[in-house]
Amino acid sequence: MEDLKIELKGKIIEVLNLEDITIEDIQDNDPLFGDGLGLDSIDALELIVLMDKDYGIKLSDPKEGRSIFQSVETMATYIAANRTK
Amino acid sequence: MEQHKYSISKWCTVSDETVSRLDQVVFEGEKGDFAAFAKAYYKANEIDYPKFFKMDALSKLAFIGSECLLMDEEFEKPSSDIALLFSNASSSLDTDLKHCESIVEKESFYPSPAVFVYTLANICLAEVSIKHKLQSENTFFVSPRFDIDLMYAQASYILETNRAKQVLCAWVEYLEGTYQFFGYMVSPYKQGEVEHTRENIKNIYKR
After folding, report:
1. Cβ of A49 and B113 within 8 Å?
2. B169-190, pLDDT tens digit by residue?
3. How far apart are CA B52 and CA B46, in angstroms?
4. What is the CATH number of the domain that holds B127?
């Protein structure tokens, strides 16, 4: 799980072009949206694409996304339980 | 003799990894890579606007050129006093091609929302407006080359109909690594400034 979280942080930084943010800057339970990393709605869509492309997880319910994308911790937990890639 | 009410109060060019303002080089980056140049400009000018890194190349180019023209402009924010009038030849084709690449293969059909949102040329107007809190008239023309008559007529119309007090006019062209920004501010005339005429726009553009 620790490896997955580190991998996820790296992918988030790369896919969302988070300049000047390193893997070490992101804590597992930091909120991804709002006061945390300050991601926006387009970033949320990119995360949905990332889940599909890299882990074979298709998210169709927006309500589901809200809880999954709370933090790297919640994302990693969901990916570990549902990945097909 | 015709009385000119407006002047070209300042101008700026961005090309070949070089930013010039009033014909003076103000920043020079390493040659050959627009993305690296844009990042170097951002860092050198200590700009604190992380959204810059999410922009496509056309918006980054518009952002840099507009920054150069607006950085010392004093105005209340939000403002409707500075209109934006941009044009180019390739519209958003550079980003359109990137989007196209991501959907061409059925097996790896993963269009990027962050790329897709820039598949309209006038998005760069929005990026500049958001950065500088401009709630003003904005227009983007697509024409084969920098059309001085069109730019002059449209800027004059905006000012003479009181839609704005100044107009930031710019040619913002980017396609597959080749790019050019030429921008100028049209402002109420002050003694000694370059008058806003077709001939003067042409002269400044050709320098």
Report:
1. yes
2. 999 999 999 999 999 999 999 9
3. 12
4. 3.40.47.10
Specify the fold of A2-82: 1.10.1200
A contact set with B (CB within 8 A): 16-20, 38, 42-43, 45-46, 49, 52-53
Radius of gyration in angstroms for the set of CA atoms belonging to chain A, rounded to a whole number = 12
First to last CA, chain A: 15
**Contact call for residues B168 and B124 (beta carbons, < 8 A):** no
Residue that has been written with the tokens 């709370």 in this structure: A70
CA quadruple B96, B99, B104, B105: dihedral, nearest 10: 170
Q: Is B133 on the interface with A (CB under 8 A)?
A: no
Looking up tokens 């991804």 gives A32
Summary count for chain A: helices (H), strands (E): 4, 0
**pTM of this prediction?**
0.92
Tally of domains within chain B: 1
Alpha helices (H) along B31-122: 34-44, 57-70, 93-103, 113-116
Residue B78 structure tokens:
């939000």
